[in-house]
Amino acid sequence: MSDRLNEYGFDTLQIHAGARPDPATGARQTPIYQSTAYVFRDAEHAAALFNLQEVGFIYSRLTNPTVAVLQERIATLEGGVGAVCCSSGHAAQIMALFPLMAPGRNVVVSTRLYGGSVTQFSQTIKRFGWEAKFVDIDDADAIRGAIDENTRAVFCESIANPGGHIADLAAVAKLADAAGVPLIVDNTSATPYLCRPFEHGATLVVHSLTKYLTGNGTVTGGVVVDSGKFDWSASDKFPSLSQPEPAYHGLKFHETFGPLAFTFHGIAIGLRDLGMTLNPQAAHYTLMGIETLSLRMHRHCENAQAVAEWLEKDDRIESVTYAGLKSSPYNARVKTVCPKGAGGLFTVALKAGYDGCVKLVDSLELFSHVANLGDTRSLVIHSASTTHRQLTPEQQEAAGASPNVVRISIGIEDVDDIIADLDQALTKASA
Ligand SMILES: *Cc1c(COP(=O)(O)O)cnc(C)c1O
Q1: pLDDT of residue 187
Q2: Ligand 1: residue whose CA is nearest its atom 7
Q3: Cα 323 to chain center, whole Å?
Q4: Quick check: 77 and 17 in contact, CB under 8 A?
């Protein structure tokens, strides 16, 4: 299998990449290795593992065979060289920044982000002495202006949650590259089926596995994927990777592991010392989900397109942000950034305002009112009173979460049933 990875298509790889029949039992499905530790062959083997001279399993905070299959599968689907799974999407964001940042360093981030990410970046990372500089990711001059000698990364979402904004990844990657820093892309809403950020020049990809990759609302997880293409030694900006790392008895990660430096650092130091580990049960559910990723994403996109078109024509609606609509300012970017579709997520502005949105979420029957997205089920949330509540009115507006806006995550149910439910709830919301 591994010799032929380049020959197989996406639908084959989503089922097979990283997995092989269990060598001990022949089990065809990847077993859940519910084990904390792994027996060393002898003292020499143990020493080689701890010295990172041999790859293997030591302790499940660092590596686990079920999680390892998931890491290889996602790295393959993204076209990367390695991946590190984490306990949540937010953990993955910290794990992506951790090897790059230090007190006094900053990351230039898009204003159009998942609400939780805005809070993580604008508030919580300050405690580490890190700073986030928010910019309009469509404004090249603003990005150039924000990058300074302390910048260590640029961060954006491919298809932004929830506003239907699509980033011009190639343009942003060029700006990051010119400044000698990596572009990190949160590819949660798009998944590697719709968008492969490395093909546009990104260095790292992060995901919340919680959403489409697992796909049915059972798991909290995250992953950082490395393209393996960034030269960490080209400048003195990334001493954790290019210089002797004091947290690993002076090991030089880039010199020792080449393109796998970031991945090894993520496991040997990130997971070892931050401990934001994905558990094997969660990895198993996510592997199950990924087996049908392309089928689900295809249907999510098809349904979302039909629902968005129906909503846009409705008198009770002020606007719909779906990038698949001709009216979207980002419609042209669908072809270049996510050619298989604009995803299953968008926002709808109601003429009935804040109160109408509250009435709508209370009146929907098929839709679930939850703080999640990317489920097989259709989901709705009023961002301004929930996920984006901590944000200022300006931040809400920038994130596409104004008071009269609901976010909907279109499921893979029969599209006629989804539309009928929205129709009856809109009637109540507009009464
Ligand atoms: C949900 C989400 C996150 C955070 O992921 P968790 O698994 O909830 O920690 C980050 N980015 C985006 C785009 C998300 O939708």
Answers
A1: 98
A2: 89
A3: 19
A4: yes
Class of domain 294-429: alpha beta
Helix runs in 220-352, H state only = 239-242, 253-257, 261-265, 280-290, 293-312, 331-337
Atom of ligand 1 nearest to the CA of 188: 13
**What is the residue with the minimal CA distance to atom 10 of ligand 1?**
89
Q: What is the pLDDT of residues 295-321, one digit of tens each?
A: 999 999 999 999 999 999 999 999 999
**Residues enclosing ligand 1, CB less than 6 A?**
88-90, 114, 116-117, 157, 161, 186, 188-189, 208, 210-211, 220, 222, 373
Architecture of the CATH domain 8-289: 3-Layer(aba) Sandwich (3.40)
What are the structural domain ranges in the chain?
Answer: 8-289, 294-429
| Residue 386, pLDDT score | 85
If you measure from the C-alpha of residue 161 to the centroid of ligand 1, how many angstroms do you get, rounded to a whole number?
9
Residues ≥6 apart with Cβ < 8 Å to 322: 164, 304, 305, 308, 328, 342, 346
Mean pLDDT of 328-343: 97
Give yes or no for a contact between 319 and 427, defined as CB atoms under 8 angstroms apart. Answer: no
Q: Which of 94, 210, 373 to mutate to test the pocket of ligand 1 (most atoms within 8 A of CB)?
A: 210
- Asked if residues 90 and 376 have their Cβ atoms less than 8 Å apart, the reply is no
pLDDT, position 394: 85
pTM, two decimal places: 0.96
Question: What's the gap in Å between 250 CA and the centre of ligand 1?
Answer: 34
Where does the pLDDT of residue 5 fall: very low under 50, low under 70, confident under 90, or very high at 90 and above?
low
Which pLDDT band holds residue 164 (cuts at 50, 70, 90)? confident
Lowest mean pLDDT among 45-54, 57-66, 138-147, 225-234: 45-54
Rg of the chain taking only CA atoms, in angstroms: 22
Q: Which residues of 263-284 are buried (b: 16+ CB within 10 A; e: fewer)?
A: bbbbbbbbbbebebbbbbebbb
